[in-house]
Each structure stands twice: as structure tokens, then as C-alpha cells.
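Form 7-S
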Amino acid sequence: MAKEILFKVGTGAIIINSKDKILLGLRGPKARDQHYKWELLGGLLNAGETPEETIKREVLEEAGINIEPIDIIGTNVRYSADETEFWIGMTYKCRYISGKPHVTEFDRVIDHKWLDLQDCLKMELTPMTRYQLDQYKGWLKRND
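Output:
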């Protein structure tokens, strides 16, 4: 009998402020995995949501700020390590609109930092965030 695979669709946000800094969040102990690693904000689509609605909701839940998705900079397709989940992800370049990043009642993300792209790459990142930031570097080269 073939094992059942759960299909998930997610979004990630490369949030850029007026100083061209990117917002990272620190995964805390209530995160599903990869505790105390830095990541881009984002999460799973709920039924009936568009990816753009999802990324706005997730960023508001994880940092208490408002953003505007501008462009999709890349996609990713992968299986979970145990091959029980199949993921499709979209990474958006987003414009910061308002609010001050803070720990919210969801408290999966326990800290936030605005950093230059090069400084982001020096952080202890989740593998997906490193992949997304590398995609962003390529996107920047293509869109100069």
C-alpha cells in the first residue's frame, strides 16, 4: 500500500523597508522545528486564501506589521525530510507598510531583525531561508 503524502502550499516574504533592509524572524521553542534559527516570515495557505492574502496574514501574525506583496521572486518544490509532506512554496518580495515588528500572541517567532542582504546571509538561517535569499540575489541580478 502506498503511503499517503500531505500536500502543502506555503509563502515566504522578503520584506524590504525604506533603507533596503530585510526582516528576519527568530524561530522560538513553539515553532514546529529548526528552533533558534533565523528565517523569512511566511506560512501555509488556508483554504480559500490567495497566496497574497496568506503572506499578509502570516506576516501580521508573526510580526504584527503590514506589508504589500510586490512580486514573486521564486518558487520551490520539495518533500519533507521524512517524505510525508510535499511542499510548493512561493517567495514574494514585499514592501513594508506599517507597524513595528514585535513578538505576537502566536509567539512562534521570538525576535526580529532588519538586516542588509549580506548580513542576513551571515546569520544562522533555516535551509529554506538560505535558499530563498539566494533566489533573491539572482532575482536582483536579473532585475537591475
